[in-house]
Amino acid sequence: MATKAKTEPASKSTSAPSHPAPSALAVAFSKAVKLVDSGKFPEAAKALETLRDEAQAAGEWSMKRRAQVYLSLANEKIHPPKAVAPDAITEIQACLNRHETDEALKLSEKAIKSHPTKGALHYLRAVAFAQNENTEAAAESLKKAVELEADFVFQWHMEPDFNPIRKSPLFAFTEGR
């Protein structure tokens, strides 16, 4: 004969497990994030600075780090980084890539007046002259570039813009380098 195990009737008043109340830092973090999300960056920055300092004082390093991340975001929105103007070398190189040779020559002349010992500027001027197939000026500029920075002779060997004038005896100074 089999006996059935008695089961206790299920209690009708079972409550969900209780969750601990969020900490004051978590509540402050939630409010600060809402300020960031709503675009109130100056208010958010103040709240996040306070939160960061309180989290550090309490030894809550993960909360401090999260506050710092959002603070950085808010500060970027308050003080956006200024656009940096391209440097002369980048501008000249872009002109050369577009075969805007006259503009590249104009920019390189101006830049060389300000920085006469910068070999890259002389090299780029040589490339511009090479694009115009001005062999004498290209050789003169390349010679100056190589005097300032010897490595430009290697770049000269690889630069296709010099191909139409490369065999000129004016470039003999590059032989054996």
Structure description:
The protein has 177 residues and is an all-alpha fold. The chain has helices spanning 24-37, 41-58, 61-78, 88-97, 101-114, 119-131, 135-148, 152-158. The protein has two domains: 27-78, no CATH class; 88-174, Serine Threonine Protein Phosphatase 5, Tetratricopeptide repeat, CATH 1.25.40.10. The model has no long low-confidence stretch (mean pLDDT 88). The termini are far apart. The chain is rod-shaped, with a radius of gyration of 34 Å.
Topology:
Blueprint lengths: L23 H14 L3 H18 L2 H18 L9 H10 L3 H14 L4 H13 L3 H14 L3 H7 L19
CATH class of the largest domain: Mainly Alpha
Q: Tell me the domain tally.
A: 2
Radius of gyration of CA atoms, rounded to a whole number? 34 Å
What's the CATH architecture of the largest domain? Answer: Alpha Horseshoe
CATH topology heading of the largest domain: Serine Threonine Protein Phosphatase 5, Tetratricopeptide repeat
Give helix % range.
55-70%
How many beta strands in the DSSP annotation?
0
Approximate strand percentage:
under 5%
Reading the helices and strands in chain order gives HHHHHHHH
Structural class: mainly alpha
Poorly predicted regions are none
Question: How would a textbook summarize the main sheet?
Answer: none
Task: Give the overall shape, derived from the CA principal axes.
Answer: rod-shaped
The CA-CA distance between the termini, in Å, is: 106 Å
Number of distinct helices: 8
Mean pLDDT across all amino acids: 88
Q: CATH superfamily assignment of the largest domain?
A: Tetratricopeptide repeat domain
